[in-house]
Amino acid sequence: MRWIEVTLETDGEAAEAVAEVLRRYGHQGxxxxxxxxxxxxxxxxxxxxxxxxxxxxxxxxxxxESVKAQLEAAxxxxxxxxxxxxxxxxxxxxxxQDWAEAWKVNYHPLRVGEHILVRPLWIEVESAPDDVVIxxxxxxxxxxxxxxxxxxVLEATEALMPALQGAHVLDLGCGSxxxxxGAAKLGAGSVRALDTDxxxxxxxxxxxxxxxxxxxxxxxxxxxxxxLANGERFDxxxxxxxxxxxxxxxxxxxxxxxxxxxIGVFGGIIxxxxxxxxAALVRTGLTPYKRRTSGDWVVIEARRxx
Length: 306
Known about the structure:
This protein has 306 residues and is an alpha/beta fold. Helix content is 31%, strand content 30%. The chain has helices spanning 12-25, 64-81, 96-99, 148-160, 178-185, 198-210, 224-230, 243-250, 274-283; strands at residues 2-10, 31-34, 52-59, 90-95, 110-112, 116-120, 132-136, 168-172, 190-195, 217-221, 234-240, 258-270, 286-294, 297-304.
């Protein structure tokens, strides 16, 4: 079997809207990557965020032309609302054996925050003694570290963990496990990683083992509902999903999974959504106190009262 790689380049504000369209048609999720960010570099040397590439994969079968037509029609309708949304995707046909490898072409080592170095599992790089190295093979799960929101959540985790050594951490929507692994390597005592996608759970466990932190990370298929039913609470919650999902979760008592005086870090938010997300966090019993930004992307830190 062969696959069709679909790629669109757009600005940060439109990227999530484009990703939502591609999720309707793509197989095993959507990747969002910063265009032109292929070098190993420190945070203060990262080029300005201007363009993002949104990528998905379609089966190259008898339905392919029909699916492409539906996709392009949906993009056209979206373009009428967001002028920055492109209406003509680029397509590339790849063989089955190359499908899971195709995205690796643009996946390179990068530095985040003060000491975090994210590298592909298949690339060896020179690291400093105080580097916190996260080695990943995301497979088809979301979370390579190239998305600005993921980088911002990692930065927040690095800044918060010195005061939370030994903490019980939640990674809700774990994807590749990058945030769970980062938290464990930065000093978390235990990390609970949940995702609704069984493939993401499998990849998280594989990456945790490759990074030597499998004993501190438990990953399984699960959701907020499960945590609430079990009465589980955490010192630090990392929720890097989508703004509308975070708002919905807040209305389902998301704040209850954070311990008194605990902290939540929320990503997947663009600037124009930040006020709405903060209002939802307040409704669920949290107090937003800090925003981290990169281009159009925002990560919000919020604390639960004692």
